[in-house]
Amino acid sequence: MKAKRMLTLLLCLLLCLCLLPVAGAGAVTLQGAGTEEDPYLIGTAEELRTFAEIVNSGVIIPMNGGFCVRLTEDIDLGGIDEEGNGIDANRWTPLGMNAFNYTGVFDGGGHTVSGIYVHAEGGDDGGNPGKCCGFFGFLSEEAKVRDLCLKGSVTVALTDEDEACVGGVAGISTGEITGCRFTGSVSGTGKGNCSIFAGGIAGECTAEITDCRADCSIEAAVEATARTTPAKTPER
Q1: pTM for the structure as a whole
Q2: Helix (H, G, I), strand (E, B) or coil at 229
Q3: Counting CB atoms within 10 angstroms of each CB, which of 33, 44, 136, 183 has the fewest?
């Protein structure tokens, strides 16, 4: 009986902790519960970066299976200068990568996230976002991204035997992308026997992309024995 009561108290405590506002390493508190019914409300660059840190750290496991967000304002991440060059100090790390893919609902609310600068080097799979490069890294089957406008530059540089998927919205998407737009540039370069899958919306996609538009340049440049492959899309 005592053990059962202790287990009940621990479960109640866990439930209460999951319902509290979440704070990241920068001590920025996110308002909301992170559910689809009560998403985190994000309106600043600091809040968006905090959210990405939480998702990519894998420290907090959301009870609903994925962190849900709704943007409340246009956001400038400050990663592009006036001449269109990337600013390393404000580089964006793809949201959802490696073992911690994004599985939630990201509702842009028609807002724009600008100043996105993603630049990754190819290498090992452990912690390197170069394998899966975009505003989002990897969108899982449960993920839904909608009504989001993105502006910026996404680039990846590979070495021999590397493979990477690079896209404006997501590197790889197995979830739903609806009503989104990417403006800017997508670029992949490689040396040796490497592979680059590049696309304006997603580098590799095995799910639906609906009512989306990409107004961007797409470049894949390789040297020696490397091969370049167009974006992977589902068979119709």
Answers
A1: 0.82
A2: strand
A3: 44
Asked if the structure places residue 55 within a domain, the reply is yes
Q: Count structural domains, the chain.
A: 1
Domain that holds residue 154: 2-230
Task: Look at residue 236 and tell me if it is in a domain.
Answer: no
- pLDDT per residue of the chain (236 residues) written in tens, 0 to 9: 555 454 444 444 344 444 445 554 455 889 998 999 999 999 999 999 999 988 888 776 654 447 899 999 999 999 999 888 899 999 999 998 767 889 999 999 999 999 999 998 865 444 445 578 999 999 999 999 999 999 999 998 887 777 889 999 999 999 999 999 999 999 988 887 888 899 999 999 999 999 999 999 998 777 765 455 566 665 44
Which DSSP string do the residues of 94-118 spell out, in sequence order?
PBSBTTB-B-SEEE-TT-EEEEEEE
Is 235 part of a structural domain of the chain? no
